[in-house]
Fold this sequence. Notes:
With 80 residues, the protein is an all-alpha fold.
Amino acid sequence: MITVALLLLALVLALFRLLLGPSTADRILASDALAVTATPLIAFLGFWLGSPFYLDIALVYGALGFVGVVAMARVLEARG
């Protein structure tokens, strides 16, 4: 439960950085941090509920989070 509490704290801090970030790069990194911290939380939820379906959701969410961050970074690089 301590691990879940720390992951939730990291999720909240990344959400604050996403909303209040001074630059676009900070917001992109915060969205990546959100994806990285939400993925194990979804996997833990699947373990806790005993449903392997949540593990599939965590896998897809992690992959889409990675692809989204790469796409946002490429757009930021093209603008810069």
